[in-house]
Amino acid sequence: MPNIKREDLPKRSVKLTIEIPVDEMRVFLEAAAEEISTHSKIDGFRPGHANYEAVKNSVGEMKIMEAAIEPAVRKTFVEAVMNEKLETAGSPEINVEKMAPGNAFVYTATIPLMPDVEKLGDFSKLSVKKGSSEVKEDEIDKALTDLQKMQTVEVRAAGTDVATKDHKAVIDMSMTKDKVAVEGGEAKGYHVYLSEPNYIPGFAEELIGLKENDTKTFTLKFPKEHYQKHLANGDVEFTVNMKELYQLQPPELNDEFATKLGKKDLAELKEALKTNIKEENEHEEERRLEREMLDAVVKESRFTDIPDLLVNDEVNKMTHELEHHVEEQGMPFDQYLKSIGKTLAQLKMDFTVQALQRIKVMLVLRTIGREKNVVVDAKELDIELDRLAGQHEDKEAKDRIYSPMYREYMEGVMRNKKVIAMLKEAMAK
Q1: Count of helix runs (H) and strand runs (E) in the chain
Q2: pLDDT (tens digit, 9 = 90+) per residue, 215-242?
Q3: What is the mean pLDDT of residues 293-304?
Q4: What average pLDDT does the structure give for the chain?
Q5: Model-level pTM?
Q6: Distance (Å, rounded) from C-alpha 119 to C-alpha 123?
Q7: What's the CA gap between 132 and 236, in Å, rounded?
C-alpha cells in the first residue's frame, strides 16, 4: 500500500501526496521493461524475453520509469481514493514530484470532490407551462419549399441576361474597410441565390441587374451582431465581378412532384410532412420543457462550492463535444474558431457559465434521484444494453457497451430520465 498524505484545499478539493516505496514500484518497473522489450530490439533476446538489466542497458532506466508512471499512478490513485473514502468528481490533476532510480516514486493528485446541494428547490411548488406541438400551415409550406429547392434545375443563363430574383449568381468578391483589405474578405466563385436574404442586408439586391462579366462596387453596413467586432455596424466596400449567372427552374408543386418523391399525390406528401414536423416539434418541446424545469429547480437550489477543476473538466468536455460536431460537418476546428473570431481560450471562457449550469443540473438530478429513491433495476438495464448492442455488428463495439464502465454510465442516464419524468409530472402544467 502506498503512503498517502492528505491536504484539504478550498472549494471542495483535496490534494493527495502519494509515495510508492521502492519495492512496490519495482513491480511496475519490471512490467514496463517487459512491455518495452516487446517493441524494442534488445541484442541477444527475442522480443518480450529480455530481462530488466538488459532493457535498462539498452534504453536507459529513466525511459523504463517514464513507461511505468501511467500504470503505477492509475492503480495507486484508485487505491488512495478508496482508502480516503473520497467521492470524486471530474479528472484529477497529476504532478510528478520525485522520480529517480533507486528512490520511492512520489506524485501529487489534486482532486475535485463532488459538490453538495445544500438546499434543493421544492419542485412540487414550481411549474413550467406546456407548449404546443401542433403543426402550422406555414411550417408545411416551408418544408415543401425546401423540397422544391432541392429539386430545382439550374440552367446557365444567356450572356445577355440580367440578374433577377429568379437567378443564382456566381461571383468573385473582395471587401475593404477604410480602403484597407478585410482579412478573409476575398472570395472566388461565391454562390448567391438572389431570392434569399444574405447575411449582409442588401447584398443580394445589389447584384440584381448585372450581367455576366459586369463589375460593381458598392458600400453596405455590416449587421450590429456580426461576430467580427471591428466590422460590426460598420460600412464595408464590396467589389464584385459577375462570373456566371444561372436561371433557376423549380418544379411545380403538384401531384407529379409528389410522385417523384414516392408519394401518391400532393395531399399525401403534405400529410407525411405534417407527421414528420409534428414529431420534430414534440421532440423540441420535450427538450424545452426539460431545460426549463431543470433551470427552475437549479434557480431555487443552493450549492456548496464547486471546484475549479470540475468546472475546467466540464468546459473541456463541452469543447470536445463542439469540436467533434464541427469536424463531423466537414470543417477543421481551427477554421471554425477563425470563422467565429475567437481563440480556443476565449471559447472556453464563454463556456464557463454554461459549464457551471450543467454541473448544477447534474447535482440536482443526482440529489432528487437519491431523495426519491429512484433506481434502475438490473433487468431493465440489461434490456437497454441488449438493444444498444443489437445496433452494432462488430465485437469491439458490443464489448464496449457491455463493459462495467458503460453499464454504470447507462444506469446513470436511465436514472436521470426517470427523475426528469418525475419532474415533468409534477411541474408541467
Answers
A1: 13, 12
A2: 999 999 998 887 777 888 899 999 999 9
A3: 96
A4: 91
A5: 0.74
A6: 12
A7: 43
Alpha helical stretches, state H, 130-220: 137-150, 203-207
> Do the beta carbons of residue 245 and residue 163 sit within 8 Å?
yes
Task: For 387, list phi and psi in degrees, rounded to 5.
Answer: -60, -45
Distance CA 333, CA 319 (A): 10
Cell numbers linked to 233: 455596424
> What is the Cα–Cα distance from 196 to 206, expressed in whole angstroms?
13
C-alpha distances out from residue 207 to 111, 148, 175, 222, 322, Å: 60, 24, 15, 17, 36
Dist. CA 91–CA 96, nearest whole Å: 16
Sheet holding 105-112, edge to edge: 3-9, 13-20, 105-112, 93-98
The CB density around residue 160, as the number of other CB atoms within 10 Å, is 7
Each residue's pLDDT tens digit, 112-124 = 999 999 999 999 9
Q: H helices of 244-394, where?
A: 255-260, 266-299, 308-328, 333-339, 344-371, 378-389
Q: What is the pLDDT of residues 67-107, one digit of tens each?
A: 999 999 999 999 999 999 998 887 899 999 999 988 999 99
Let me know the angle formed at the C-alpha of 12 by 6 and 13, rounded to the nearest 5 degrees. 45
Q: Other C-beta atoms within 10 Å of 184: how many? A: 11
